[in-house]
Amino acid sequence: MGERLLVLGGGVIGLATAFELSQRGYAVTILEKAMCGGQASGAAAGMLAPFSEIAEDPDDFFQLCLDSLRIYKKWQQEVKRVSKLDFEYTESGSLHAIYHEADVLALETRKSWQEQWGTKAELLTGEQVRKMEPLLSNDTIAAMYYPEESHVFAPDYVKALEKACRNNGVEIYDQLEAVEVLDWKEDILLQSKRGQTFRADRLVICSGAWASELEATFGIRIPVYPIRGQICAYHMNASEIKHIVYTSQGYFVPKANNTLVNGASEDIAGFQTNVTEKGISRLTNWNKRVFPHLRQNKPFHTWAGLRPATQDGFPLIGKLQNADHIIFATGHYRNGILLSPITAVAVADLLDQKANYEPLRSCIPERFS
After folding, report:
1. Rounded to whole angstroms, how far apart are CA atoms 34 and 36?
2. What is the arithmetic mean of pLDDT over 332-356?
3. 332 band by pLDDT with thresholds 50, 70 and 90
4. How far apart are CA 197 and CA 220, in angstroms?
5. Residue 256, C-beta contacts closer than 8 angstroms, at least 6 positions apart
6. How many angstroms separate the CA atoms of 116 and 96, rounded?
7. Is 8 within 8 Å of 205 (Cβ atoms)?
8. Phi and psi for 44 in degrees, rounded to 5?
């Protein structure tokens, strides 16, 4: 193909997109102002759980998430093959636990529409749930079991994506501090804070929570806002908890390194990524109701990351209508890890001029202008 592509942003979406494009023969360069995977990507719990997280009727966003889940197994195998690095990918299944009789109907309603999408969901009684996860509280009256849902260890997944990109010849420039788009209407020309210049035939915007900085450049509204997500982790034996456990207050993800990840507390704090006592206490105040044994434990690790949220909850994925050499792939909120394969494939298909992928009709970049 020979086309030169610049990918602006080295988070999980930028890395995944660059990887897929390099697999298809494009010459790709990633520009990252900080470290690759340093914000939302490396801080994520790594859940691949669209059935648990999306409670409403299916829409294009649900379709995106479900399609990505169902290509994930093959995708992660290819990342491992090219990178020659391993990372945790666990087809654990999940339990969406509830604590009030009134919530049973909501789970039954959810099951009825999700079955139309081929899920193998099973509504379990409290007794059945505790047989699967004995450490769950007796307050758990029921749960929906989703055997398809999985998780990855996000920091290692991001490292493998970066290595896979490098092994495919992708050039990566990170710690650039700032990157300015000098020209894009005809020729694409970007410049780093240090004065390095980069030219390309096409530009893919994957700058996450910083995408709104480009509003004046492209003359469109880009309402992507940073939401701080705070997470904590507990020591645990690998055999103690086997499934993702999801509740209305948050989630737990057991990892192979003998930790239990508990998240996430969210707040609006600009671009601050510091951990706060208030944010972590939101987790520790309720998690004991789910797992009573946590009363005797304290988190050994706490951290935070920025999640790029859009005004309507849908990411921005697609070409600019009057400049099809500019492609957006940003605003994935807390689903960047899950959506990384399908976003990468969708962007590459757009560049290859393949048939339109219907869910992208809700992700048009100019829809807020």
Report:
1. 7
2. 96
3. very high
4. 24
5. 88, 90, 153, 238
6. 19
7. yes
8. -80, 155
User: How far, in Å, are 51, 58, 113, 229 from residue 54 at the CA level?
Assistant: 6, 8, 11, 18
Strand partners, 265: 230
Rounded distance between C-alpha atoms, residue 267 and residue 11, angstroms: 21
How many CA atoms lie within 13 Å of 116's alpha carbon, on the beta-carbon side? 9
Q: 173-212 pLDDT, tens per residue?
A: 999 999 999 999 988 999 999 999 999 999 999 999 899 9
Tell me if 228 sits within 8 A of 31, measured CB to CB. no
Token code pair at residue 247: 């509740």
Model pLDDT, residue 274: 93
Residue 275 falls in which region: left (phi positive, over 0), alpha (psi -120 to 50) or beta: beta
Q: First vs last Cα of the chain: how many Å apart?
A: 33
For the chain, where are the E strands, in sequence order? 4-8, 27-31, 47-48, 89-90, 94-98, 122-125, 142-146, 150-152, 171-173, 179-183, 188-192, 197-200, 202-205, 224-235, 244-246, 251-255, 259-267, 301-310, 316-320, 323-330
Alpha helices in 244-323 (DSSP H): 277-284, 287-290
Q: What is the pLDDT of residue 258?
A: 95
Structure-token pair, residue 82: 């090219």
What domains lie within the chain, and their CATH numbers? 4-76+154-223+312-368 (3.50.50.60), 92-148+225-310 (3.30.9.10)
Q: Is residue 42's pLDDT more than 70?
A: no
